[in-house]
Structure formats: structure tokens, C-alpha cells
Amino acid sequence: MSLYDQTWGRMFAAGYDWFLAGTEEAGLREIRAGLVAEASGRTLEIGAGTGLNLDHYPGGVTDLALTEPFGPMAKHLRERLRDSGREARVIEAPAEDLPFDDDEFDAAVCTLVLCTVDDPGAALAELRRVMRPGGRLHFCEHVRSADERLARWQDRLHRPWHWFGHGCHCNRDTRATIEAAGFEIAELTEGELPKSPPLVRPLITGVATVP
């Protein structure tokens, strides 16, 4: 683990729920609930963080696998899972290298994850591999702004935000990356991440399917 991860990374993981508390209260919790409620069958969540989606999974999810590559985050995830009483598997693995078989999952979930993975194209290719044909990817991601002025600011301030956000990229065109990976967008809503800095306010939520 790098010195950055040992210091700021650990602090970021410990304070993550506190950092997001205002955003969750302002509407993100409801967005999560609506998105995750549509998952069913064998379901995979990548970059599960501290487990803020856990309470929202419906009974139709028959098997739940949660991946989280950063050890300090995974520690908090395991604690929340234990307290929830829910049955799920926690696996410390990067989204670009998932330890699952081909066509293993009926659904996948990513919320505020594709901004942070090292290689979003590779991560989405792995999701396609482990999802069965017809499987549904439920996503909620902040993205590059369609407003050129804000997009320029996202580019200018990318480096300090990337440091502060423990690897978060504020200027990724995630919709284009999802489509380039071969998913078909079935549902898409453009909105705003509530009570958040302008750099990460543009938001897309929706469902993409595996052809």
C-alpha cells in the first residue's frame, strides 16, 4: 500500500459516509433505492465501498456478491454487512479483474464507481464477461458535463480533485464508455448529484443490457 493510501486513503475510507451524509439526505439515498430495487437474481456490485446500497437490495436478489478493491473500505463494508444481517459475499478485487466465471450474474450494480476505477473500459468489459446475455447493469455515475464551460473547469481542476477524491475522475464521459464496451442503454436519466460540488454534479442513472 502506498503512503498516500496509508494516510489519506485510510482517512477517506473512515470518513466516506460522513463526506456523503448531506448528499445522501438530499436525495442520493432515494436514487440508490430506486436503482437497486430493480435488481434480481444473482447480482454483483462492483466498488461497493462502505455498503451504502446494502439496505436497498430487494428479496428478488437471490445471491449477492460485493467487490471492493481497497482494503480499508472493504473493512467498513464487512462491518456494515455483519450489522445488516444480510447474506452476501465480500471479495477484495478490482473491477478490471473479477474472480468470477463467464455468464455468472443476472444483474450488476455500480454507483459512483466508474469515476474511480483505473480503467473503466476494462472494468466494463469484465462486467460484460461475468454477466449473462440479457443481464442488466444498473448504474448511477457522475459524469463529464454537457455544458462546455463546466466541462473545462472539470478538466482544469481534475488533478486536485483526483487527489482529494482518492482516485475520482470528475471529467469522464461514462455513458460513452458504457456503450463502447458493448452494452445497450435501455433506460437513462440525466440529472444532478444532490448537494454536491459542481465538478461532480452532472449525473446519469439508468440500466444497460448485455446483448
Q: Helical segment tally? A: 6
The tally of beta strands, per DSSP, is: 7
Q: What's the pLDDT, averaged over the residues?
A: 97
Largest sheet entry: 7 strands, mixed
Helix content: 25-40%
CATH superfamily: Vaccinia Virus protein VP39
Rg from Cα: 16 Å
H/E element sequence: HEEHEEHEHHHEE
How many domains, as an integer? 1
Ranges where pLDDT stays below 50 over 5 or more residues in a row are none
Tell me, what is the CATH class? Alpha Beta
CATH architecture title? 3-Layer(aba) Sandwich
Structure classification: alpha/beta
Strand line-up of the largest beta sheet: 3-2-1-4-5-7-6
Instruction: Provide the CATH topology.
Output: Rossmann fold
State the end-to-end distance: 38 Å
Q: How would you describe this structure to a colleague?
A:
By secondary structure, the protein is an alpha/beta fold. The chain has one domain: Rossmann fold. It contains 6 helices and 7 strands, in the order αββαββαβαααββ. A 7-stranded mixed beta sheet has the order 3-2-1-4-5-7-6, with helices on both faces. The termini are far apart.
Sequence-ordered SSE layout with sheet pairings:
Layout: H1 3-36, E1 41-45, E2 61-67, H2 71-84, E3 89-91, E4 105-111, H3 120-130, E5 131-142, H4 148-156, H5 158-164, H6 174-180, E6 184-192, E7 202-209
Parallel strand pairs: 1-2, 1-4, 2-3, 4-5
Antiparallel strand pairs: 5-7, 6-7
